[in-house]
Amino acid sequence: MSVTMVYDLETIPDITFGRKLLRLENATDTEVAEALTLRRAAQTQGTSTFLPHHFHQIVAISVVVATPEWVKVWSLGDAVATEAEIIERFFEGIQRYTPNLVSWNGSGFDLPVLHYRSLLHGVSAARYWEMGDRDQGFKWNNYVSRYHQRHLDLMDVLASYQSRAYASLDEISLLLGFPGKLDMAGGQVFDKYQAGKLTDIRDYCETDVLNTYLIYLRFQHIRGHLSDTELAWETERVKQFLIQANKEHFSRFLEAWQSHE
Asked: pTM for this one?
């Protein structure tokens, strides 16, 4: 069975690591986060406050999974799942289905973060890391090597691997008539997390993977993997899922999508 899995992460600063690194044992979480931001600004001479990959803690992973029979969208684990459990769920899906992975900037951000956090928690992911040692079919097509197809980073491919041509998920979504980001942006995730609004974060992450999947369908169309009829059918499957799921954030996504068409 051919399985496609589009994924996206939401992260916050790793406060535990930051507190240890900066020796801020008595500081609040907010104070540690601010100290990490100031440290990063000093390192980059004020050009960026975005933390390096190994300073990120994963708080949500959302996926769109599409098979010939169905398409679904959800966030891995429940609202009380630990980071390790969420990561385990992600790699268990790869182990079980060997899906084609699709992302927006997954090579540049999501996968390196997953690698570092897997090291931290000791999460085994044999299928993901397979490069032909045990399965020859992975020698020339695996998840890890840059130009292989088991993982497709849409941002990277559409930009021809040129950083000057990179575009944001939100802007390309809007360009193509999709909703883009609705009520949140990545910079708000830490504040939402501190406020205990993990459900809002998970909902936001799910709309991000929906945008990515819709762009992916367009990409499959222009590369000749979907006909006009097949693209329309796949698009309609997504709309039907959103209707049948009967969730507020999916309804708002669908309403925004229809208003852009």
From this structure: 0.95
